[in-house]
Amino acid sequence: MALLPPDPVYTIRNVDNTPVFSLAFNFLPGGLERLLAGSKNGYVYAYNLQTNRVQQKIKVGQAPILHLLHTEDQLITQEKGGNYKIFNLTNSGYQEDTLIDMDYPGFCRFEANTKLKTLYVPDRESQVYIYNFTGEKIGSLKPEFSEPKLGDPMCMKYIELAPEKSYLLVGYEAGWLVLWDLNTSQAIGKLQTKECPMSVDFCKDQQRGIIGNASDVIQIFSIGRKDLSLVHGTDITIKNHGINKVQSRLDAKVFVSGGWDGHIRIFSWFSLRPLVVLTEHKRAIQDVVYSTEKVSMWNANIMAAGGLDGVITLWDLYNQKQ
């Protein structure tokens, strides 16, 4: 390894050591900096990043919060089982505005275009439904081809490759990765991956993407600049099986994987080699996110990771030599 494992800048024990399924940084007007933790018990805990203590407890439902998104004035949550809730942020707190009930049993997280206020929501039989932020269904993505059988959506990534050119990468149960043109609602490319993909991300600057799955291999792929074809690239072998989350860092220098073994692995985009393995967590990592703004406590962009051990770790890795 090129680097010795650093220590986290802070470790948060989630309320009652409740397993953490999803995370989101939240920067609000007035300088309020928070980290939201979607938990197994159906709560979203809002941690104030200036005190690292719970500032607010938001009761969503009874099921684990698989994914969440916070805009300037709305909180969107996804519960295991298919409930999607849209809360409006008011002076008195969060008020539930819309419920979307999909009856979807899987673990695929929704994706969103926050500019157009559009949600991409997974469903059974290879379908993805499109909603606006008011809960109105406005479209769908359904494969027209009968072969190959895709199975249910397992992971998604919204990407913009050019101005007003938006796409959705969808990984399916049968091991296929499909690129959808959101302007035409047509599938324009597909790639057979090694196993059922569990997480996918794409780095526009690198023009490459990452796929994590249940195996001991992380797959790298690319999207052709002219024909938008999906092309298999390098395979990266890791020590233990199972990746729940892959995420590219905003500066396009590194990417991260969160594993079933509780390990967080940081890789160089340039060499595709592991830079460091972080072993602070003792159970599976469920989510890894990067802050889009500097957190004032550390004057740095921070990476947060959470998992089934009920621990949230905060990391300042931007100052490490790459």
From TrEMBL:
It holds the Pfam family WD40. Signal peptide: none annotated. PROSITE patterns: WD_REPEATS_1, WD_REPEATS_2, WD_REPEATS_REGION. InterPro entries: WD40/YVTN_repeat-like_dom_sf, WD40_repeat_CS, WD40_repeat_dom_sf, WD40_rpt. The keyword Repeat applies. WD repeats lie at residues 278-322. Keywords: Repeat, WD repeat. Coiled coil: none annotated. This is Guanine nucleotide-binding protein subunit beta-like protein 1. It comes from Pieris brassicae. The lineage of its organism: Eukaryota, Metazoa, Ecdysozoa, Arthropoda, Hexapoda.
